[in-house]
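Task 17 of the worksheet. Students: predict the tertiary structure of the chain below and write it out as structure tokens. Keep your answer in the requested format; marks are given for formatting as well as content.
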Amino acid sequence: MSPSPLFSLVLALLCGQEPVVGEAGGGKGIKSSLQTPPNNPADWLRVLSTGSTHSSLGQYLGGKRFGYEIETEGPILWNGKLAWRIVEETAREELADGKPVHEVSQTTSIHALEGEGPLIYFHQIAEENGKRTERIAMPTGKGDGLKLVVNRDGRQETREVERPKASLSHTVRMNAWLSSSPEPGTRMTSWETEWDDENPNRPTVYTFIGKESVEGERVNRVRCEMDGARMDCLVTDQGKTLSVRVGPLQLKQEPESIARKLQAGGVDLAEALSIPLDGLKDPKLAPRVTKAVWLMRGLEDTGFSFPEDKRQKLVAPTNEPKGAVHLITQGSPLPGKAEPLGEAEKKAMLASTPTLQSDDPRLKAWAQKQVGMAQSVRDRAALLVGAVNRHLGKTMAANAEDALSVLDQARGDCTEHTLLFVAAARSCGIPAREVTGLVPGEMVGKSGTRLAMVWHAWAEYHDGTGWQAVDPTWNQASGVDATHVKLATGPTDWSWMNLLGVLRVNLERAEFSR
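Model answer:
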């Protein structure tokens, strides 16, 4: 998986947001005295503070600064009324395929100073190596929803979405909870905003760990969990983020003049976050592995558990410390009974979404052309795997967020291959979903070439009896090999991120096809 699709989420989570998230909640300088929403803008300003606030955070990996987040918020006159504006600027420089990738974004959120302090306007411009995406959200004029307009790759998409639940009053209540010194283990649910989901509201659970002293100031240590991914945070009572950590990735408060100085040379995130692998001499042998036995170490206290899958079986190891498991993987599913899809799941796995536009006429026409007159589900899926593999040039430096963009740019890595296959399969009436996991690979870094388990995406389709795994990137149409270790199903299970920096993998035994 290329750095940007994978680590935009990691780094967005480090910033307390999902990818392409609007701030939609504010809070880095909001006071914590709110009990009930103020009745008018003047009262709101007394709660929030009458002046602007400023925050600057650097993004680090291995002590190297490769990105930053700068945020300013304060009162503004909006359509003749006092409102609260939050402006966020982010930048990141990394390496992909040995080439520099430069990403920047500018986001403006406007909140009304009435009621709960709802979001009333959102505007974001994001660029990656000159490729631009713009998102604008504003009231529809009817009901409580928002109209979201997305401009990317010369296309404009418009749809109505729920208004984000994240609001000024919700954020202030969160800060009041922190300043109340809750009992360790106490939890509070908040909300983040994911604009590319059908429902933009994502619940986020905060667990209070305790108070501690940082440079003479008493601050709160909190664990934040969203979609299973955990972040360790230090936050002041006023909601100011001092640091956030996900494995070896860190976000920390520092002067803006320092945060903006990205260190030369770039960071290859895919190489830096790959997992050391022992036991396999040559990754080119991976496609021939029909059965593998892995020793996985470092799972203790991660909150991660392997998903149920007919290709994989967990065995508790003997003579190994806590947090270690043996995992047996096979290229074809382990024996079991047929499992047809229920109607609700089938509907969900055929649905067109903002990122999997399976009902788009152009994408449907392309997919139908690839399958031709093939009748069986397996034959049609195999034809789509081959078509996607041929259509896309192979690069980690051409990221796309949706299937139509992948179809148009005709290049990408495993993320883009998987997006296009899943959307194309659904357009042909085949239930399909994304899978996240690990595969062996060669990582070329400054220290030379080494074998590692690397983050990877592939797909599964349902043939009427069960889920069948295929890998469009590797052109594996009749089933993936046994070196594909599945960690998560679908786009909303991110518990595998808790393995960053702690998981260790050893291939103890492998069987090969002739």
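Marker's comment: The chain has a mean pLDDT of 86. The chain has ten helices and 25 strands.
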